[in-house]
TrEMBL record:
Pathway: Amino-acid biosynthesis; L-methionine biosynthesis via salvage pathway; S-methyl-5-thio-alpha-D-ribose 1-phosphate from S-methyl-5'-thioadenosine (hydrolase route): step 2/2. It comes from the Bacteria. Residues 32-282 form the Aminoglycoside phosphotransferase domain. This is Methylthioribose kinase. ATP binds at residues 40, 57, 111-113, 246-248. Homodimer.
């Protein structure tokens, strides 16, 4: 079982059976392929007699949606496994337990989190996650700090960086997030009624310049080991638990890209409340909850990150007065800029989000799209003058 081929359900069951710590008894196992993405198979293996289960995720060598015409390196499965294991060491309890990572077969065999809900779905259904900001602040502060030149041996970091070279997946971001939305690219998925809004972006020189600078930062700024795809579809939640999954885009990049991804997805749901809230009062409450989650996330992140720096900083040169404050300001600005970029591409790029795209009423959907686009634009153009997370709240509340 070491030469790569896509697994059948029977083979996935055979592999699962060897995990005696999960399935100590011999009763029958059943498999269901539950992947909802375009790049991977996800087998949910259960033992009905005992209620025990695990997940077998396998990378495919091509993008599923268009057959095998778009190849994608299987090395991302090794990267996903290594990233999950590292994240689990740095932020215990906030990622699934990995039972085995098999680079040859592009497999990650891990804890079944089916008792959680994917956060995007939970938010659409009006869920409230009181511990989410704390958990994500813990995850982000620890995974980013301890993989950066602030918090780890700087020569080891260069070696680590080499284990997370992820050109195919980075290119997806470089193209679909940081390039195609900014011109009339073929892959854009523009509803005819939004064409004017997309064309306005392509003429907006201030916006195009800032977006190009964000793209440069994503290409060049190997600041820390990122998750790389930290949208609300990559987070499993319950009111009391948070688990980050799916780090196949992991690479050494700018920290603000990960934090910004979460902010963007909370704001996309904010925009989607044009439809998901049944009335004005609920809409106001729901949006206040989403904005307070953003504020809490940043505030807690910043507090934790500074505390880690004070306790575990490895470079005395960075103890100069004012250095940490300036660093945190730049990190907030990156977060805001990337939040804008991550939100903008979801409005008319190839891959959209259910928070907006599934709104059945055309007019409500258009209002949500235009609102998301206005917020995204303002985040991008103002990112380098931002000084507080309150700037994000103000931009969301005043966008129209
Ligand atoms: P992709 O990279 O293809 O997006 P994901 O890792 O996001 O793959 O998994 C796709 C879906 O499979 C998730 O949305 C979730 O429904 C299910 N899934 C993935 N990992 C787990 C897990 N550990 N436990 C339960 N379900 C999972
Ligand atoms: Mg998916
Ligand atoms: Mg996913
Ligand atoms: Mg994925």
């Amino acid at each position: 079982m070491s030469k790569y081929h896509p697994l059948s359900e029977a083979e996935a069951i055979e592999i699962a059976r060897s995990f005696a710590e999960v399935f100590p008894t011999g009763e029958e196992l059943v498999s269901r392929e539950i992947g909802d993405g375009n790049l991977n198979l996800v087998f949910h293996i259960t033992q009905p007699a005992t209620g025990r289960s695990l997940i077998v995720k396998q990378a495919l060598p091509y993008v599923k949606i268009i057959g095998d015409s778009w190849p994608l390196s299987l090395d991302r499965a090794r990267i996903e496994g290594e990233a999950l294991i590292k994240q689990g060491e740095l932020a215990p309890g906030l990622v699934p337990v990995v039972y085995r990572s098999d680079a040859d077969m592009a497999l990650t065999i891990m804890e079944d989190l089916s008792d959680h809900v994917i956060m995007r779905k939970g938010l659409i259904e009006g869920g409230v996650y009181p511990d989410f900001a704390e958990h994500l602040a813990e995850f982000l502060s620890r995974t980013l700090f301890f993989t950066s030149d602030l918090g780890m041996n700087q020569q080891d970091k260069k070696v680590q960086l080499g284990r997370f070279i992820n050109p195919d997946l980075c290119k997806i971001t470089e193209d679909f997030v940081l390039n195609f939305p900014y011109y009339d690219a073929e892959s854009n998925n523009i509803e005819p009624y939004l064409r004017d809004a997309a064309e306005a972006v392509w003429r907006d020189e201030e916006l195009l310049l800032e977006a190009a600078k964000l793209r440069e930062k994503f290409l060049t700024h190997a600041q820390a080991l990122l998750h790389g795809d930290l949208h609300t579809g990559s987070i499993f939640v319950t009111p009391a638990s948070t688990k980050v999954i799916d780090p196949e885009f992991a690479y050494y990049g700018p920290m603000g890209f990960d934090i910004g991804a979460i902010v963007a997805n909370l704001l996309l749901n904010y925009a989607g409340q044009e439809h998901w809230s049944p009335n004005e009062a609920d809409r106001r409450d729901r949006r206040a909850y989403l904005l307070s989650t953003i504020t809490e996330l940043w505030t807690r992140f910043e507090r934790k990150f500074r505390a880690l720096w004070d306790a575990h900083g490895v470079d005395k040169r960075f103890d100069l007065p004012g250095y940490q404050d300036d660093y945190m300001k730049r990190l907030l600005q990156d977060t805001i800029g990337f939040a804008g970029a991550k939100a903008l591409r979801r409005v008319y790029g190839l891959a959209q989000v259910a928070d907006i795209a599934t709104i059945p009423d055309r007019e409500a959907r258009e209002r949500a799209q235009r609102l998301a686009l206005a917020i995204a634009r303002n985040l991008i153009v103002s990112n380098r003058s931002a000084s507080s997370i309150e700037d994000v709240v103000r931009i969301a509340e005043t966008a129209a």
